[in-house]
């Protein structure tokens, strides 16, 4: 039995599947991996959350970077990997997708928000750091690129930031708790495109394995958790998952 058949077999015999997605699934849609050589974090010093809050200059630089790199994100479309997961969600076989990605491609592939657990937030909209009110990016982009105006909340005048988790910002408690709960109750945990180096998120595969779930890792490069996995496939995610699930 080859690896695809083994993956298909694992999916077919599972009752509660959880996916854990990282940058590797989105690079196949043309979104660069920030941590790779030549990625954003090798070109720019990251802006820490405390600095964003304390300095208007840092907030300005954060929004400048956001809109300078946004073009790629806006054009990106879900790929075969995203569509395969959407099909498993639709079939009721997959209970949730835990993601480290901030690009909203799982939502675009048709997965309901309620099934997506975003550990690092979402860069496709902004929110007020005081009252939590959601702000769409269109008016913010127009005002910032037009006159350099920094966004303030229309409800409470609070500071507005993309709805992502910055360096030094606390992980979202509700999402982490949901991810923990889903991980502990699944019988198949599939890692897709994560190097499994960013903690605490990278701890979830080991929790799943410890609770008795089967662990599958699909990633182009080796990870530190390959030895823990029941099945490791070093290949592109889209072709691998579409063959295993039966989607184009």
From TrEMBL:
**Signal peptide feature range:** none
- Does the entry feature the keyword Lipid metabolism, yes or no? no
Catalytic residues at 120 (proton acceptor)
Q: Which residues form the Deacetylase sirtuin-type domain?
A: 1-248
Q: Name the SUPFAM superfamilies for this protein.
A: DHS-like NAD/FAD-binding domain
PROSITE patterns, from UniProt?
A: SIRTUIN
Q: What is its EC number?
A: 2.3.1.286
Quote any Pfam family the record assigns: SIR2
Write out the GO MF terms.
histone deacetylase activity, NAD-dependent; metal ion binding; NAD+ binding
Query: Which UniProt keywords are given for this protein, alphabetically ordered?
Result: Metal-binding, NAD, Transferase, Zinc
Q: Where are the transmembrane segments?
A: none
Gene3D superfamilies found in the cross-reference section? SIR2/SIRT2 'Small Domain, TPP-binding domain
Binding sites annotated in the UniProt record for Zn(2+) = 128, 131, 153, 156
Which EC class is the enzyme in?
Answer: transferase
Q: Which domain of life is it from?
A: Bacteria
Which PANTHER family does UniProt cross-reference here?
NAD-DEPENDENT PROTEIN DEACYLASE, NAD-DEPENDENT PROTEIN DEACYLASE SIRTUIN-5, MITOCHONDRIAL-RELATED
Protein name (Swiss-Prot/TrEMBL): protein acetyllysine N-acetyltransferase
Question: What organism is recorded for this protein?
Answer: Reyranella soli
């Amino acid at each position: 039995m080859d690896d695809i058949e083994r993956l298909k077999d694992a999916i077919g015999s599972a009752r509660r599947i959880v996916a854990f997605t990282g940058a590797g699934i989105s690079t196949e849609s043309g979104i660069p991996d920030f941590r790779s050589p030549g990625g954003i974090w090798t070109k720019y010093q990251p802006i820490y959350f405390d600095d964003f809050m304390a300095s208007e200059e840092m907030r300005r630089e954060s929004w400048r970077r956001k809109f300078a790199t946004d073009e790629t994100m806006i054009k990106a479309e879900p790929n075969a990997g995203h569509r395969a997961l959407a099909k498993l969600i639709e079939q009721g076989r997959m209970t949730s997708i835990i993601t480290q990605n901030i690009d909203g491609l799982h939502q675009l592939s048709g997965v309901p928000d309620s099934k997506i657990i975003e550990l690092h937030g979402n860069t496709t909209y902004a929110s007020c750091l005081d009252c939590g009110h959601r702000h769409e990016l269109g008016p913010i982009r127009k005002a910032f690129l037009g006159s350099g105006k920094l966004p303030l909340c229309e409800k409470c005048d609070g500071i507005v930031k993309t709805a992502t988790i910055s360096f030094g910002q606390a992980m979202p408690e509700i999402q982490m708790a949901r991810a923990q709960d889903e991980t502990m109750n699944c019988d198949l945990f599939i890692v897709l495109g994560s190097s499994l180096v960013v903690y605490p998120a990278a701890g979830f595969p080991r929790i799943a394995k410890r609770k008795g779930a089967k662990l599958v890792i699909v990633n182009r490069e080796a990870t530190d958790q390959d030895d823990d996995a029941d099945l490791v496939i070093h290949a592109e995610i889209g072709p691998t998952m579409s063959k295993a699930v039966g989607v184009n």
